[in-house]
Amino acid sequence: PDFDLEAHVSTLDMSDPETHSMLAGVVGERLGLPLSRSFPLWHFSLTRGLPGGDVLLARLHHCMADGIALARVLLSLTDPVDAAGASEGPVGPETWSEGAPSEEARQPRAPGWLRMARGARSALHKGAELV
């Protein structure tokens, strides 16, 4: 009876294309908010209307679970990683050059937030495989 779902789950509509570039700032702002000690120490923010799909931002206090257990909980919320969604890893300085962008750089690609989410999902899956 004392549980209030609205204290733990919020939504943000970013269906207006003008707001898509604001995603990183919104994520940073939400991650910077303290969790209220008046409620259990977790909060999910569902960001809807982005071109590649919705984004779920999870804020959980480390007392909820150790790192591996928490990674498994979060992985259970995602789709399995396939070869197309696997992270390519960071780009080293040897691949950088001055001048005009390469042909590869001019090709359309997923938005940065989507690539970052795929990389994080891939890293979590790899970490879970090690355990």
Structural write-up:
One of its GO terms (molecular function) is diacylglycerol O-acyltransferase activity. By secondary structure, the protein is α+β, with helices and mostly antiparallel strands. It has two domains: 64 residues, no CATH class; 39 residues, no CATH class. It is 32% helix and 14% strand. It contains four helices and three strands, in the order βαββααα. It has a three-stranded mixed β-sheet with strand order 1-2-3, covered by helices on one side. Helix 2 crosses helix 4. The chain is globular. The N and C termini lie far apart (38 Å). 2% of the residues are buried. About 4% of the residues have low confidence.
Key words describing this protein structure:
globular; 3 strands; alpha+beta; 131 residues; three-stranded mixed β-sheet
Beta-strand residue fraction: 5-15%
Number of strands: 3
Question: Low-confidence stretches at least 5 residues in length (pLDDT < 50)?
Answer: 87-91
Q: Name the quaternary structure.
A: single chain
Instruction: Please tell me the total number of domains.
Output: 2
* First-last Cα distance: 38 Å
Helix tally equals 4
Kindly name the structural category.
Answer: alpha+beta
**H/E element string?**
EHEEHHH
The percent range for helix content is 25-40%
Overall mean pLDDT score? Answer: 73
Largest beta-sheet details = 3 strands, mixed
Q: What form results from the Cα inertia axes?
A: globular
Rg, nearest Å:
18 Å
Strand order of the biggest β-sheet? 1-2-3
Pfam families: WS_DGAT_cat (PF03007)
Keywords: Acyltransferase, Transferase
GO biological process, one term: glycerolipid biosynthetic process
GO molecular function: diacylglycerol O-acyltransferase activity
